[in-house]
Write a structure and sequence with these properties.
This protein has eleven helices and twelve strands. With 339 residues, it is of the alpha+beta class.
Length: 339
């Protein structure tokens, strides 16, 4: 257990009544390495330690180049989980400098997520359930300050979430499975030999489309933040890695989750006191609206602002699912348009 007299301690994250993350850098680097401490309340720390350990062990056996950081120990009396330092860099850092190597990392991230979604439910222990209605409710709560400060965007958010609920009811579903719960480029690290996944605190029993949609939404935010071209290509490379053997309906639901997640990250990641908060908030909400419009267009529903055409064209299997055959019968004019 690290002692402050032998370590330089710095705060990484502080969330009142939730959790804290501390970094311990040894004063004598010959004898010890950097350690990260995550502090929890109640029994949460024990559950997270068990979950992260089991996921890391399963990926070590089945991951094929994908690993998860394994916690060092759980200190019960302090409610602390200790983690080693990951030697590498988060994919979010690499995204700022697009290259062929970064594109390959995005594809491997898709493979990593597809692997993670095959993890048996019993491996990680009991998981809290999380459905689409809960995700929409969380998003509405997170964004409730926006209608007060920017009424025009509040109207768009309300309309978008209402459309999302209605559309979700029309889509085929599948049984929930193990999900990361916060799968984004910050939690995917490029390390020598492959990728390492971190932070399984938010893992849930949920629709796997949730993880896909979140990753796509955070890619959008990254490209907007750094004013980078190539968003469509980046998303496609990720999906090339994920898509083999993935149900087509899951990718459709992923776009619905992407639209909802864009609203949520607008509320949580676009900082209220930034000078351009208003323009950036409007920009991201418009992106969410565009994703919804294109999804409705793809499903043959009336839309007014399509902008992300062809999302599924390159990932379509040669055969049609039962749901796809029904959709083509309803909309014969679409036959062959995206085949």
């Amino acid at each position: 257990q690290p002692r402050s007299s032998r370590y330089a301690v710095s705060s990484i994250r502080y969330r009142p009544r939730q959790r804290h993350v501390l970094r311990y850098d040894p004063l004598d680097r010959v004898k010890a390495g950097t350690v990260f401490a995550k502090l929890y309340t109640g029994e949460e720390g024990a559950r997270i330690f068990h979950r992260a350990t089991q996921v890391a062990e399963w990926l070590a056996e089945h991951g094929e180049g994908v690993t998860a950081v394994r916690p060092l120990t759980y200190v019960a009396e302090d409610g602390v989980v200790l983690y080693p330092r990951v030697l590498g860099a988060p994919l979010s850092d690499h995204l700022r400098r697009p290259s062929q190597a970064v594109a390959q990392c995005l594809e491997r991230a898709g493979v990593a997520l597809h692997t993670l979604h095959r993890l048996p439910q019993g491996v990680a222990g009991p998981l809290p359930p999380h459905d689409f209605a809960a995700e929409v409710s969380e998003t509405a709560r997170a964004s409730r300050h926006i209608p007060v400060l920017l009424p025009s965007m509040g109207v768009l958010i309300d309309a978008l979430l209402h459309r999302a609920r209605e559309l979700h009811e029309r889509l085929p579903q599948e049984p929930p499975t193990f999900t990361h719960g916060d799968f984004k480029s910050d939690h995917v690290w490029a390390v020598p030999g492959g990728l390492t996944l971190i932070d399984f605190d938010s893992s849930e029993l949920a629709d796997p489309a949730l993880d896909i949609g979140k990753f796509l939404a955070h890619l959008q935010l990254s490209h907007l933040t750094y004013d980078q071209p190539g968003l469509e290509q980046a998303q496609k490379r990720f999906l090339v890695g994920y898509a083999p053997d993935a149900p087509q309906e899951r990718l459709v639901r992923a776009r619905l989750y992407e639209a909802v997640e864009l609203v949520k990250i607008t509320a949580r990641r676009v900082r209220l006191f930034d000078h351009d908060w208003e323009s950036r908030t409007e920009q991201v909400i418009r992106r969410a609206q565009a994703v919804m419009n294109d999804l409705e267009l793809m499903l043959g529903l009336p839309v007014t602002q399509p902008s992300l055409r062809g999302f599924l064209g390159e990932f379509r299997k040669p055969h049609h699912t039962r749901w796809e055959r029904r959709r083509h019968r309803r909309h014969p004019s679409e036959k062959g348009a995206r085949g």
